[in-house]
Amino acid sequence: MAKYTVQTEISHKGLHKYKVLKASSKYELRQKATAQLALWDEQWRKQQLIEKSKQEKLVIQRNHEENKKEAEYLTEVAEEIQYGIDNMLKNTLGIPLVSWNDLKNTEHFH
Q: Is residue 103 part of a domain?
């Protein structure tokens, strides 16, 4: 059984992890610390990628919802305009024709 003569404390702030490492030599302790920190860094990198992906998906979803609302609004406006155009001829057919002669002033000037 190996007797531990050196030890150190390591931590990773992002992951909120802490560990006490022990070894029989400074070299072995440095190797253990380097390996553990590399493992934690990789875990942190993956966690950050997952979080970034989630945030990007939320932004895309919000943009999609906003675009959908705007498209619905613009469709409604276009339908109202089209309705007005469609009914323009119908609304003007009932108006009697203008007689330009009736609009003329035929009184004599003094």
A: no
User: What is the distance between the alpha carbons of residues 51 and 57, in angstroms, rounded to a whole number?
Assistant: 10
Indicate the number of domains in the chain: 1
Q: Report the candidate in 16, 19, 46 with the shortest Cα–Cα distance to residue 34.
A: 19
Q: Is the pTM of this model over 0.70?
A: no
Q: What is the 3-state secondary structure (H, E, C) of 68-109?
A: HHHHHHHHHHHHHHHHHHHHHHHHHHCCCCCCHHHHCCCCCC
Domain span holding position 30: 6-93
pLDDT in tens, 20-62: 999 999 999 999 999 999 999 999 999 999 999 999 999 999 9
Provide the 8-state DSSP code for 22. Answer: E
Name the amino acid, one letter, at 87.
Answer: N
In sequence order, the β-bridge partners of residue 18 are 11
